[in-house]
Amino acid sequence: MGTRKKVHAFVRVKPTDDFAHEMIRYGDDNKSIDIHLKKDIRKGVVNNQQTDWSFKLDGVLHDASQDLVYETVAKDVVSQALDGYNGTIMCYGQTGAGKTYTMTGATENYKHRGILPRALQQVFRMIEERPTHAITVRVSYLEIYNESLFDLLSTLPYVGPSVTPMTIVENPQGVFIKGLSVHLTSQEEDAFSLLFEGETNRIIASHTMNKNSSRSHCIFTIYMEAHSRTLSDEKYVTSKINLVDLAGSERLGKSGSEGRVLKEATYINKSLSFLEQAIIALGDHKRDHIPFRQCKLTHALKDSLGGNCNMVLVTNIYGEAAQLEETLSSLRFASRMKLVTTEPAINEKYNAERMVKNLEKELVLLKQELAIHDSLANRNIVTYDPMDEIQIAEINSQVRRYLEGTLDEIDIINLRQIQEVFNQFRMVLSQQEQEVEAALRRKYTLIDKNDFATISAVQKAGLIDVNGHLVGEPDGQGFGLGVAPFSTKPGKKSKSKKTVKDPPSSSARKEGASSPVSGKDLDMISTSKTQLVPSSKDGDVKDVLSRDRETSSIEPLPSDSPKEESRPLSIIT
Ligand code: ADP
Ligand code: MG
């Protein structure tokens, strides 16, 4: 997690000969601005209304050159974008206060060029200074007018909205405008001619569509993708810088407006107040829902307001007394913006193809390294490739021979072989478990462990000892395993055959008590849910099991046993 950072809010005051000195005062540190309103100016206003305001900002730019403005507000944002941080620079203010001058500047005069051409220039200069990276730059220019999206860099003659209207799309990577042309620019001149084309389209549109350009929002976006030229580096970074020239923020009096102007004013008021609502929500840390989707402007800027980007606001104001109401409203917007915090983070991505190639290379190197080690240790014919079926079958046979005792040890060759040996051990073991269970099933009557009626019948019949000789709880819960009356020793035959139908004698129960098969013993063979119910017959399961364990193999139980029908034990499963 990165550290939270406040949005930087600057105020730029448009130079004027008619500056209202008595009303506008700058703080000594150039970071605050005080407004004093003389009461007599606000005729008809109740006397107790506020007349003094103080706004704390990150800088007040008055009589500042375009150069100084760029250095102060944009330089760091642009330079950090090359390291993978998104950035947003936004100009807000009433019409004529200098937003477009700040953002685009006077194109005919190099000295007066604004943030946009300077940002492009800085981007390409920095690319030159980073020969270690291959950096691609793309640009797009979007205009939002009366809630419609326009592509200012559309290759078609600029006549209005494209045939397929553009839409704002959200995906896990962020927000993008479907249908908006994005242009690859390999050098500064290309980027400048695109910017020029966009500006021209903006002017043409204002004539052909009878559109007031100060009534639209314009978003110029520079997208960057930086790949290291070092082939081993599979990481790359992406970023975008949004340079936003907002529509004039002045509130047009509805009474005087009609037709086009009224429509524009309605849209502008709506989108700027939605922007303000989003900003207020972003500044309120208790709010978890930010209303971005209420209008095109906030929706298009969803991942560029707040979030993980470096954000800067320039509030353009007039310094004249006549504009003080609008100036106050613009400064209020700036101080709200200052409450917003963002969490700038690098947009780091991985190039999967390069990653695989690097891993393959690494593998080849490690195999070579291993081969050297083997030859130094005189271990010549060792391969490290995956095992084939024949090799696996050989290991299986070794494991079986080892378990039978015909092979004393298994030579260790390499890690892959050790893993296969363990694997084969597991397979043989599970095979044997199944064989044991199958053998038990063949030999004994099985009773469902949850079939309490049968269990109780068996208990009643005296085949199992309810007094604890049979492992098991009276309520059937956690029913254990055990052998109740049981008279035989291995190889000996019981005189009393005990089956469900043939209850054991009390003496048999007594004998059984002295030779229980513990639950543990049976757990060993994984006959889960299996219960042994005592009966009598030659040999017992314990014996079979211990013999199995000793030899690690199951000898088939004689199915042709003459006493087959009277099995020594019953198993409840
Ligand atoms: P906005 O875009 O806010 O409506 P503009 O940027 O178009 O306003 O500015 C209106 C006029 O004022 C333009 O002719 C512009 O050149 C001029 N202007 C604005 N700010 C400055 C400034 N800081 N220095 C010189 N001229 C400026
Ligand atoms: Mg403008």
From TrEMBL:
Stretches assigned to coiled coil: 349-376
Pfam families: Kinesin (PF00225)
Region (Disordered): 481-573
Gene3D superfamilies linked to this entry: Kinesin motor domain
Keywords in alphabetical order: ATP-binding, Cell projection, Cilium, Coiled coil, Cytoplasm, Cytoskeleton, Flagellum, Microtubule, Motor protein, Nucleotide-binding, Phosphoprotein
All residue ranges annotated as the Kinesin motor domain in the record: 6-340
Gene Ontology molecular function: ATP binding; microtubule binding; microtubule motor activity
Record-listed ATP binding positions: 93-100
PROSITE patterns noted in UniProt: KINESIN_MOTOR_1, KINESIN_MOTOR_2
Localization per record: Cytoplasm, Cytoskeleton, Flagellum axoneme
Biased composition (Basic and acidic residues): 537-552
Biased composition (Polar residues): 525-534
Gene Ontology BP annotations: microtubule-based movement
One GO cellular component term noted in the UniProt record for this chain: microtubule
Self-association state and partner proteins as the record states: Interacts with HYDIN.
Job description of the protein: Essential for normal male fertility and for progressive motility of spermatozoa.
Protein name: Kinesin-like protein
Gene: KIF9
